[in-house]
Each structure stands twice: as C-alpha cells, then as structure tokens.
Amino acid sequence: MKIMVAVKRVIDYAVKIRVKPDKTGVESQNVKMSMNPFCEIALEEALRIKEGGMASEVVAVSMGPAHCVDTLRTGLAMGADRAIHVDATGPLYPLSVAKLFKALVELEKPALLILGKQAIDDDCNQTGQMVAGLLGWPQGTFASKVVLDKEKQLATVDREVDGGLETLCMDLPAVITTDLRLNQPRYATLPNIMKAKSKVIKKYTPQELNVEIKSDLEVLQVTEPPKRKAGVIVSSVDELIDKLKNEAHVI
C-alpha cells in the first residue's frame, strides 16, 4: 500500500509575523521557513503506518516555488521514500491545491492520502475536504487516532468533536487529515539529512497535470490586528470585580 502525504512550506511558527509596508501580504523575505506543523504530524503518522508493516511506500508532496524543495528534503530526512514537487509560482488556494492532488493521485494510485488539518499561514482547513470530494473518497478529518486493517482495506479514525470523540470506519482508499493529538513528530537525524540531499525529487508543473491555476479570491489588503491595551494592577478584590463588571466588555 502506498501513502501520499502533503507537506507545506510556511513561515516558522516561532517567527513574529510582519505585514509588508504596502499591505499586500506578510513579509517572507529573509524569514525562517519550515514545514507546517500539522503536515509534520501527517508525515509522522504515515511513517509509523509503514514501520508497522501496513504500507510499502510513503510519498511526500509539496506545491509552490522552488524553495519548497527544502521542505521536501526535510520530509525525506524524516523517512519518506520519495518526494514530488509541483512547481507553481503564483498563489495557490485550497481548491487549486485539491485539483493538483487529485491529478497526482490519479498518477500515483495511493491507497491513503494524509494531510494536516490546516496550514498555520492561512488556517483555511479546506484542502483535505475538497480533495476527498473531487476524488469521491471517504474522509476522516481532525484525526486523533488512526488504525488500518490491511486485509479488510479499512481505516478507523477517532476524531474530536464538540461532544467528545467520534469514531469513523472507512473503506480504502480514503483521505485523512491530522489533528495535534495524533502523534509527536520525530526529528530528522544528521545521517538522514545528508542522505536526503542526494535523493531525486520528481517535478511536475500544473500544466503537465492538466490543472488550470486560477482563483475567485482577491486579497485587497492585509493589516495587523489592533494593539492590545496595557493591563492594570488592582489593589483589591472589590476593585477587580468592579472592573470586570464595568470594563471587561470594552475593547
């Protein structure tokens, strides 16, 4: 069984985001970039499934400009067997990414597609659901536990919902999106990092996949949230209660 995993290159979670002076987006030049944390969890789960003897190959996929190759190298160093880069220069919105994944799935024929539930740069939480809809595959989103039955070709997914835990049983092939509590991603070791540098990464363009990149969205302006007001020190419980009653709702 082959597993395909999405890995996205994003601004590192620890970086303080700065808006560009012209307010067309956020500053990404000379800023530390890394693999999206939810994608790390997705890749870790795929690797654990393979190590458990339930899969034969893990293929990491990233879409975007040439620098995405660095993220794929990280995925290869973590343990992915192969990597695919879809070279696209313009902005990629969830529906376009889903269409590209659909085209890759038709080429690679994986039995399982695992994605992070969302990317920390746009927080869209749409791609997994969209690609499942395009493929007509069952989906298990926000997975906190994944169990595969290779003989019956079934996937059982526990997911967190408002009322507690929900368990889904799906026929393979299927799409799974990962939540934070699914696992703890491993670190890439130095020997594996060195080996990953020499591995070949297969490249496609959207045109080669017969996918037209377009969007109905237009970003007009990006602005920072308003500055948070400074806190105050109160001298008594009564004063605290008074402020909570009369001032807590004021922004």
From TrEMBL:
Electron transfer flavoprotein alpha/beta-subunit N-terminal domain sequence ranges: 23-213
GO biological process entries: amino acid catabolic process; fatty acid beta-oxidation using acyl-CoA dehydrogenase
UniProt cross-references to Pfam families, sorted A to Z: ETF
A molecular function GO annotation: electron transfer activity
Subcellular locations according to the entry: Mitochondrion matrix
CDD domains, per database record: ETF_beta
Domain of life: Eukaryota
InterPro entries associated with the record: ET-Flavoprotein_bsu_CS (IPR000049), ETF_a/b_N (IPR014730), ETF_b (IPR012255), ETF_beta_N (IPR033948), Rossmann-like_a/b/a_fold (IPR014729)
Family annotation (SMART domains): ETF
GO cellular component: a single term: mitochondrial matrix
Transmembrane segments: none
Keyword annotations: Electron transport, Mitochondrion, Transport
The protein's assembly and partners: Heterodimer of an alpha and a beta subunit.
Function: The electron transfer flavoprotein serves as a specific electron acceptor for several dehydrogenases, including five acyl-CoA dehydrogenases, glutaryl-CoA and sarcosine dehydrogenase. It transfers the electrons to the main mitochondrial respiratory chain via ETF-ubiquinone oxidoreductase (ETF dehydrogenase).
Similarity annotation: Belongs to the ETF beta-subunit/FixA family.
Name listed for the protein in its UniProt record: Electron transfer flavoprotein subunit beta
Naturally occurring in which organism (per UniProt): Quercus suber (Cork oak)
Gene that produces this protein: ETFB_1
